[in-house]
Amino acid sequence: MAPEKELVQLIGFWGSPYVLSVRWALKLKGIEYEYHEENLLKKSPLLLQYNPVYKKVPVLLHNGKPLVESLMIIQYIDETWKQNPLQPQDPYERAKTLFWAKFAHEKCIAPMVSSFFKIGEEQEKCVKEACEHLRTLESALEEGKRFFGGETIGFVDIAAAWMGCWARIIEEILSVKLIDEEKMPRLIAWFSNVVEVPALKECMPPTQNLLEHNIKFRKFLVAAAERLQSVPLTGN
Amino acid sequence: MAGDELILLNYWISMFGARVRIALEEKGLNYEYREENLQNKSPLLLQMNPVHKKIPVLIHNGKPICESNIIVQYIDEFWNDKTPLLPSDPYEKAQARFWADYIDKKLYDSGRKITWNKNKEEAEEGKKEVLEIFKVLEGALGDKPYFGGENFGYVDISLIGFHMWFYAYETIANFSIEAECPKLMAWDKRCLERKTVAKSLGDPKAVYDIVLKSRKIKGLD
Lengths: 236, 221
Known about the structure:
The complex is a heterodimer. By secondary structure, chain A is an alpha+beta fold. Chain A is about 55% helix and about 5% strand. In chain A, helix 1 runs parallel beside helix 3 and helix 7 packs across helix 10. Chain A is globular and about 55 Å long. By secondary structure, chain B is α+β, with helices and mostly antiparallel strands. Chain B is globular. Chain B contains 11 helices and 4 strands; from the N terminus they run βαβαββααααααααα. Chains A and B meet through strand 4, helix 3 and helix 4 of A and strand 4, helix 3 and helix 4 of B.
């Protein structure tokens, strides 16, 4: 059976970690794709057409058919291209993988990201919540294992290990502590093990660029909040 | 399969627990149902779901699976010889997951604005959001009998548990889902005709009574 001509396109933003995780999946599977950079301040008609519900990146187009939400895109990629499987075959192990990817996204990454959009007490609350759940994630990592599932890179790694880099950026800009060197040694080792994989390292945007972009973004958010409140905010 | 031990830890009013009950029934599986008192969680629940300490939890031969949509996917994958709940085509599967995820992200929180409202404004806001979500879902349903097409499946299972809460939403926020979203209510009636659904859902009026009692205890009324 002749292979169908595959057209794979990714609509993304260079600074988005969710887009990065999809790029990681495509890279590990050896899938060629066209990349379209989106200006998030002026979303294209294409993006609004292909993701009318959330209007966000990443959007994967496979032969013109859209897929959205990074975790679900990665699942789709894994199920459509069978080489280098990212998820375990066993249903129980798959369920565990999905559980931890969901936990990482909803309980660690979400409050971390939220903290960036907040100030004062609300920001502190988000940071505290993120730290608490990061400690749970730490305990889910097994001592001595290179990746989340073992010695082979997999779903949870590419879904979430990028959070180490973004956590450091948030820490620097907000002057908060998310990653505790003493309490989270396994997390720190895991972040580094994943990000140092050559194929994945190639896709990483330069940390300096991410830092500069997010400093600007934070200034913009603070200024917008100040305009609403019409008093200057204390803190970062 | 002979020798499979299945235990479901649940609280009957949970729209999430309902998903698992329906999936087990659709697959014709025998299981032990254990009602949890969420004010006094059992040692088994705390042991089997130490991360979230929540129901539903499915325990299969001693191994726990948590998070309702993950449990339903597990049930579908493990007992893959009968009554498929998810489509086999990867793209259609992705679509099904998308809508179940949308329901998870949106409906529960907006519904809570109604049931646990601190004032009329919050209830009204919840009502508007819930109706918006229902309209989007009606769009996804289209003219099909079920979300996946001709057969009852994953997205239907994801949503139908909320049926138990419709009466509470309508009564507290004073509106009629039928009047605003007749297509969705037609789908709702269709699903309730299935034995697997009817036996898995609690009585909506009983759910409403529990909400009222809880509201009094929380000092909201």
